[in-house]
Specification:
Layout: E1 2-6, H1 10-22, E2 26-30, H2 33-42, E3 47-51, E4 53-54, E5 57-58, H3 59-69, E6 75-79, H4 84-92, E7 97-100, H5 105-134, H6 146-159, E8 165-168, H7 175-184, E9 193-197, H8 203-211, E10 212-213, E11 225-226, H9 228-231, E12 236-240, H10 250-259, E13 261-262, E14 271-272, E15 276-281, H11 285-291, H12 296-302, E16 305-308, H13 319-334, E17 340-341, H14 343-351, H15 357-371, E18 376-377, E19 400-401, E20 404-405, H16 413-427, H17 431-438, H18 442-451
The structure holds adenosine-5'-triphosphate.
Adenosine-5'-triphosphate binds near residues 136, 173, 282 and 358.
Organism: Roseimicrobium gellanilyticum
GO biological process, one term: regulation of DNA-templated transcription
GO molecular function, one term: sequence-specific DNA binding
Length: about 450
């Protein structure tokens, strides 16, 4: 944890810093209200240790101000025996706990582990809220196809082992969902599952996001920072879009995989990591190795257990199974009495190519549930095949409407895609909205913009 120690007595600040650092946390100190509030403004902390007798200032006033400005920040107050009443008052006003001075390492450690538990609970609440907000149906890991069944079996057999897992597959086939499922079926299920989106950051920021950095390691590094490897300690680190990992970072990841060791940016201390790695990509990594953009040794290290999430085109027998699951889920989410698909709607689902895979199907069914009149989803509630970017015969000339390529003419998917993304980037207020409308995540949007030269 990153801890701010607020005390006017140097001897207490120094001794507490030592104890906090010995316990494996990061400490910063402040001597009064204004330096404390400034430090809290500059960087996020996980805990404030506050002396209620803050020289000429009243620690309880500062407690109130911290709670006003940083309502999520837990505060533990220091107190001397004579001021125990003040400590009780502080707790009544929202402090999480108190420590009576002088305190021992063991007493501090008990309080810190209580705060950790509190933090984990708070994180879990946020995670659950995000899950509810993102309205994700319970994942389905079943298939009518023996080949797909086998893929899922290999994946889940590997789950209980410590082996690294590489998940391949087109965009939207459920690689991230599968990675989380592997974690939940492993002995690490109770520990964190931490995702790193490899393409969404510059090389420098990605390195710091992964491994952390020390204060002053680069411009803007105003204080020490633990990376995601540390955040995933004991759990699983999921490297999404590993194919986009910059070449310069690949040796560091290889070392993490091979030796379970890493260093934060800007320091020489070697640290041990206890993380299980799951990586995913929609790239052909073998081709990237041939092209020299992906290290061969890293590829072999990752390629221990490799599964390919099948595209929906390769599992036509599962289409209606998924469509029904999504329909049930969204009908209950939106409180709509939609109980089935009409025969033409089912036909349309089966006839469509679903290039965006499960993500596209999910989004199409969500929309259809909203549009449906009555108990049945009609074919007209589903996006028409052309609207989904599945262009039929391409015999005609390239046709454009005001320089925008038109669907159904001799125009490539890439041109259509580029025009569509460009138009959305112009009309929608931010990238998150564009990604939501396109039914892809922001990392995928970032990749597409780069590929199509739209950034
Ligand atoms: N097994 C599943 N059961 C039900 N729904 C699923 C399943 N897998 C994926 N989905 C749905 O498809 C969406 C996309 O899945 P996910 O983000 O895991 O795909 P991805 O392959 O990681 O995509 P990308 O490569 O674009 O990041 C999910 O939000 C979820 O709604």
């Amino acid at each position: 944890m990153d801890i701010l120690i607020i005390d006017d007595e140097k001897i207490i600040r120094d001794a507490t810093t030592q104890l906090v650092e010995d316990a494996g946390h990061y400490a910063e100190t402040a001597t009064d209200s204004s330096t404390a509030l400034q430090a809290l403004k500059e960087s996020p902390f996980h805990l404030a240790l506050l002396d209620v007798n803050l020289g000429r200032e009243n620690g309880l006033d500062l407690l109130a101000e911290i709670q006003r400005q940083h309502p999520q920040l837990p505060v533990v107050v220091f107190t001397a025996a004579a001021t125990i009443k003040t400590a009780v008052e502080a707790m009544r006003r929202g402090a999480l706990d108190f420590l009576e001075k002088p305190f021992s390492e063991a007493q501090l450690s008990i309080v810190l582990s209580r705060v950790q538990k509190h933090r984990k609970l708070a994180e879990r609440v946020v995670e659950l809220q995000t899950q509810v907000a993102s309205q994700s149906p319970e994942p389905v890991f079943d298939s009518a196809s023996p080949a797909v069944k086998e893929v899922l079996e290999v994946l889940f057999r590997a789950a209980s082992t410590p082996a690294s897992v590489l998940i391949l597959g087109e965009s939207g086939t459920g690689k991230s969902v599968a990675a989380r499922a592997v974690h939940l079926r492993s002995a690490r299920a109770e520990k964190p599952f931490v995702t790193v989106n490899c393409p969404s950051l510059s090389k420098e920021l990605l390195e710091s996001e992964l491994f952390g950095h020390t204060k002053g390691a680069f411009t803007g590094a105003v204080r020490d920072h633990w990376g995601k490897v540390k955040a995933a300690e004991g759990g699983t680190l999921f490297l999404d879009e590993i194919g986009e990992l910059p070449l310069e970072l690949q040796p560091k990841l290889l070392r993490l995989l091979q030796d379970r060791e890493y260093e934060r940016v800007g320091e020489n201390t070697t640290r041990a990591a206890d993380v299980r790695i799951i990586a995913a990509t929609n790239r052909d990594l073998r081709k990237s190795v041939e092209a020299g953009t992906f290290r061969e040794d890293l590829y072999y290290r990752l390629n221990v257990i490799t599964v390919e999430m099948p595209s929906l085109r390769r599992r036509p027998d599962d289409l209606l199974l998924f469509a029904d699951k999504f329909r049930e889920f969204f009908a209950s989410q939106f409180g709509r009495p939609v109980r089935s698909f009409s025969a033409p709607a089912r036909h349309q689902i089966l006839a469509h190519g679903w290039p965006g895979n499960l993500r596209e199907l999910r989004n199409a069914v969500e929309r259809a549930v909203i549009l449906a009149h009555g108990k049945e989803i009609a074919a007209t509630d589903l996006p028409s095949p052309s609207a989904n970017g599945v262009v039929g015969g391409v015999g005609g000339d390239v046709a454009t409407a005001g320089n925008v390529p038109m669907v159904g003419t001799a125009v490539s998917l890439e041109e259509l895609e580029s025009a569509h993304i460009k138009a959305l980037l112009k009309t929608l207020p931010n990238l998150a909205d564009v990604a939501r409308v396109l039914g892809i995540d922001q990392a995928t949007l970032y990749r597409k913009r780069k590929k199509l030269g739209l950034d």
